[in-house]
Design brief:
- The complex is a heterodimer of chains A (about 220) and B (about 220).
- Chain A has helices spanning about 10-20, 90-95, 135-140, 200-205, and strands at about 25-30, 45-50, 55-60, 80-85, 105, 110, 115-120, 145, 160, 175, 180-185, 190-195, 210-215.
- Chain A is α/β, with parallel strands linked by helices.
- In chain A, α2 (about 90-95) packs across α3.
- Chain B is α/β, with parallel strands linked by helices and about 220 residues long.
- Helices cover about 20% and strands about 30% of the residues of chain B.
- In chain B, β3 (about 50), α3 (about 60-65) and β4 form a beta-alpha-beta unit.
């Protein structure tokens, strides 16, 4: 079966942004999730948190206005919105672990149908492991959204019955946004919310290595 | 009169001994006390255990200390980066030991040491490789992992302004690990952009009170 229609990375980012309400405290992970910031409507006040100690993170500065002391978790220059705040690392992670963040958006290697997340280490013997704040975010935010391609470059499903890569957190993912679908992790299983245009549930199931529940309004 | 200011970067780090555990502030290069690290390299102490979020970026600061082969072990959360080539080479050559800890556990272990806490149960890392061999407990139906405090002989941190009592304020996201490392080390040495007269720092805005700081040195001293 060949899939002819996929959400682009920008469409995925725009779709995630739709689910972030005004007033939410949100952490956007490194990589693809960073794109979500481009689609948050300006008329909504949403508080972006960066693990290295700021709330109220603004967009990238104009060229020439970069400040080496004002960076995000990916170590790229950013700005601070009026009303934003700086704090030290223990406070920053208390915001996660203490359940104060409403939403975090993370990339992933694999997600299981029960919401286990693998996104920090491929487990390859020659890889130098690095975890950063991934495990703290995974267990800390009230809702963990994962944003990833549905399949690997070689066509394997990244949604699995059981993660084969080392885990970041157990049962922590609440919603998955891929280039093919939006899925909720529910006690009953993976509930399909939306699919790329023209895709049928059978098409989606054929490329997903875990059982899917049909959209309730389909 | 108490005066914690020091007029020489070299003298500020002169008692860092071989085998010492040294916390180094910074997240990447923001908050990295590069002038103190350069002085430490010149001083020559080796066989160091370093605590930092990363394992050096580029060729300066902590990366230069690793390149000079002074680091025996590093405790950090995120060593591997596009510009961590000095660490990568030392690690692959088996010259440096790595203790990887999730970033929030790293921060809380440092804070715990400074606050006199003998350890804590955290949900971060439960069920993962990084919790293997560690004590676990179920509290109110949630799973937790026991983590221990990280104490240090010295902390090298960077702040914006300091006074002769050791009070400090920081600049933007360069604050990161500075305040908690200052609490966790026996001797905390702060590199500052400016030394100000006592009373010039607003007492309502002091981030690190001087009790946590032993030496204050200007970054260009």
């Amino acid at each position: 079966m060949s899939i002819t229609s996929r959400f682009t990375r920008d469409q995925m980012a725009a779709r995630v942004a739709q689910d972030i309400p005004e007033g939410a405290y949100v952490n956007l992970g490194i990589g693809l999730p960073t794109k979500v910031a481009n689609y948050l409507p300006r008329e909504k006040e949403i508080f972006l948190h960066s693990e290295n100690g700021l709330l109220g993170m603004g967009p990238a500065p104009a060229p020439g206005e970069e400040d080496d002391d004002l960076i995000n978790a990916g170590k790229q220059p950013v700005t601070l919105l009026t009303g934003g705040a700086y704090f030290h690392h223990a406070d920053s992670f208390a915001m996660m672990r203490g359940g104060h963040l409403d939403i975090c958006v993370l990339g992933a290697f694999q997600v299981s149908h029960t919401g286990d997340l693998a996104n920090w280490h491929t487990g390859a013997p020659d890889a130098i492991p690095a975890v950063g704040g991934a495990m703290d975010l995974a267990i800390g935010a009230k809702q963990v959204f994962v944003m990833m391609e549905h399949q690997t470059k070689t066509g394997e499903s990244k949604i699995v019955e059981r993660c084969t890569y080392p885990l970041t957190g157990i049962g922590c993912v609440s919603r998955i946004y891929t280039d093919l679908a939006v899925l909720d992790v529910t006690p009953a299983g993976l509930q399909v919310r939306e699919m790329a245009p023209g895709l049928t549930l059978a098409d989606l199931q054929a490329v997903t290595a875990a059982p899917l529940l049909a959209p309730s309004n389909a | 009169m108490i005066d914690k200011t020091c007029d020489s970067l070299g003298r500020a780090v002169a008692d860092i001994h071989d085998g010492a555990t040294v916390m180094i502030g910074g997240f990447g290069n923001a908050g990295m006390p590069s002038a103190l690290i350069d002085a430490l390299i010149a001083h020559g102490a080796r066989d160091l255990t370093i605590v930092n979020n990363n394992a050096g970026n580029g060729d300066t600061g902590l990366a230069a200390l690793i390149a000079a082969k002074r680091v025996r072990k590093i405790v950090c959360s995120f060593p591997r980066q596009s510009d961590s080539w000095h660490f990568d080479a030392a690690f692959r050559a088996g010259e440096i030991e790595l203790e990887l800890t999730p970033q929030g556990n790293l921060a809380e272990r440092i804070r715990a040491a400074g606050a006199g806490i003998g350890g804590f149960f955290t949900p971060t890392g439960y069920g993962t490789l990084l919790a293997e061999g560690k004590e676990t407990r179920v509290i109110d139906g949630k799973h937790y992992v026991f983590e221990t405090p990280i104490h240090a002989d010295f902390a090298l941190i960077k702040a914006l302004r300091g006074d002769r009592w050791g009070n400090l304020v920081y600049r933007k996201t360069a604050r990161n690990f500075g305040p908690i490392m200052a609490m966790a080390a026996t001797t905390t040495i702060a590199q500052v952009s400016e030394i100000v007269a006592l009373g010039e720092l607003d007492p309502e805005a002091i981030v690190t009170p001087g009790i946590f700081v032993q030496r204050v040195v200007k970054e260009a001293a």
